[in-house]
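Intended use. Records like the one below are meant for learning the mapping from a protein sequence to its folded structure. Do not use them to infer anything beyond what is encoded.
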Amino acid sequence: MTDALAKILTLQEAMELAKVFADSDLVPKEYKSKPANCVIAIKMGEEVGLSPFQALQSICVINGKPSIYGDAGLGIVMASGELLDMKEEDDGETATCTMSRKGHPNPVTRSFSAADAQRIQMYESDGRGGGGWKPLGQRMTWRNHPKRMRQWRARWWVMRDLFPDVLKGLRGAEEMEEATIIDVTPEPAADEFAGMEPKEVVHEAGRGDTGPEREMANGPHDSGASRPESSPQPDRGSVPVTERQDAPPRGPQPPDNGKESAMAVTDPVAVFELNGVNYQTKGCTKDQMLRLFGLCSKANKKAGQKGYDKHLLETEFGVTSKKDLTEEAAERYAIRLTEVIEAA
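Structure written out for the chain above:
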């Protein structure tokens, strides 16, 4: 690495350079016309020794988390001067990578197989508002370049375990494929969801939680089965859907960030934020609420009656809002809605 590439820019210099890059056609689309994103990528690149242009070409952002494409990651490790030896093999089914580091007593070996790729379940959009769950190994890039994709996965696991100080916590873009954006925006009822704007959340494939239900014509994914995991297991870097705070102090809770809560109850059990709205419920968790949004919409469509979900809520559960459901009642409500959806 030359001194020119290692130069650290001031924030003002980075901002001026970012404006030039953002107006060009030589940056990825996530940076086009977004100078602020360019600045962050440039400064992040400086942390690992990338020039501004290298940073914009090599760093991608997945759900707000920066990650690096495979070749750039290896380049950063090699440029550090810490890599002593590297060996990669592939027997047609399993890729294995072994690296040795200066001053580290033992080499580190990691593997990734075709079977691992088939076990990891991911959500993939069809581009028309629908989609479904499929094994990682059935993605187009994996079908076209299985050996290369296995190689990158095995390589990244070694580099992250052996060179965390060099990579500064950056993950491989290939790993971040498992963090898939799913649109879970419901059809809001005016009384409960006023002011909510469509947002996207991430559900991490391979977790055992139920995850959000997607509002789409081909129905929800399997909400009861655990998602299989690959072996060896990588770190979980995706943002989880559920951020539950159990048993907060008794009494009404102050709204977060000075915002009024549109969904508040007295003596709440669960408190969370969803689509910019502060929720305080009697136990219904964040991922249960997300799941119920999708199920309610589907139940209304199946029943051919707008507000049918409200009718079930009031007549069978004795409450007028999902915020008044306990965690156990929310689960029973989800089961009841599923029965309506699956009814012949």
